[in-house]
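Incident log, structure service

09:12 report received: a user says their structure output differs between two submissions of the same chain.
09:20 pulled the input from the user's history:
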Amino acid sequence: QVQLVESGGGLVQPGGSLRLSCAASGITLKLYAMAWYQQAPGKQREMVATITRGGTPVYLGSAEGRFTISRDNAKNTVYLQMNILEPEDTGVYYCAADRGPVITTSPRFWGQGTQVTISS
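09:34 re-ran on a clean worker, output below:
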């Protein structure tokens, strides 16, 4: 049984930082491409960062320059370091996985999400 479990969310003031973790079980992480998605209040879920099976990161939108996605295959864990957080970063953050070199448009496996709230 595949499980992706996100953690690390919380309430942070604008300008602050958070580090999200996605612990995977039931899969061998090194065989998978991974991604982080944000679902802001009232909006559709959107990818913010992805990392290929080989470890190449790609960032979308305002995540570029502020977020860092990384993976530790030995720990079966993917991370999202988020810096200079803005109120627009508020939402539920989901981890997703696809077996293969890159994430697809419809990842097969999803976590339950972790809430991130940026507010003063």
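09:41 both user submissions now match this output. Likely a transient worker issue. Closing.
09:42 reviewer note: The two ends are 40 Å apart (CA to CA). The mean pLDDT is 97.
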